[in-house]
Amino acid sequence: MKATFGLGLGALAALCQSVYGLEDGAYTIDSVISGGTEALTDYRQPGVPLEFAQNQRNEYQTWKFQETEKGSSNDKYFLIQSTAGTFLNCGTEKGSACVTSDSPQAFLPEFAGNGKYQLVVEGSGYFLNANYKGQLMLAAYDTTDNELFFLSPAEQ
After folding, report:
1. 105 found inside a domain
2. Integer distance in angstroms from the first to the last C-alpha of the chain?
3. Which residues, in sequence order, are CB contacts of 55 under 8 Å at separation 6+?
4. What is the dihedral of CA 71, 30, 16, 155, to 10 degrees?
5. Which of 49, 91, 100, 134 has the most crowded CB, counting CB atoms within 10 A?
6. Structural domain tally of the chain?
7. pTM listed for this prediction
8. pLDDT per residue over 70-110, tens digit each?
9. Which CATH number belongs to the domain containing residue 128 in this structure?
């Protein structure tokens, strides 16, 4: 009986990891505050603050998530790259606007339930935050929907 119970827990743990664990791949980063109708859009202007726009599920709204070695062995940090080849970079200061850049920055996706994720910047501990002006910025943890995102699989 004990062996069967252990096997059941192992299978359940594997299922939870595959359902909730983010994998390498292409995603749209959809804003929860817009109900998922707006996605992070790369207008291919490095250094210009990124904004959310009507979700068209096109190449400008597709972001490649690639696991990186940063972080502790228990955490899965990802580099987030636009289809133009530049990386999502938000600096390390609270209130910084997120841009695309040649400098990669690592993010920790934390599953928040109901298909939603929070994205934490490696090193700073700040969270990505979609403000009501449609911009993506760094903020301290605040429990609002501004810090929640749908990471939806996208075609490459």
Report:
1. yes
2. 46
3. 28, 30, 36, 37, 38, 39, 61
4. -100
5. 100
6. 1
7. 0.84
8. 655 578 999 999 999 999 999 999 999 999 999 999 999 99
9. 2.80.10.50
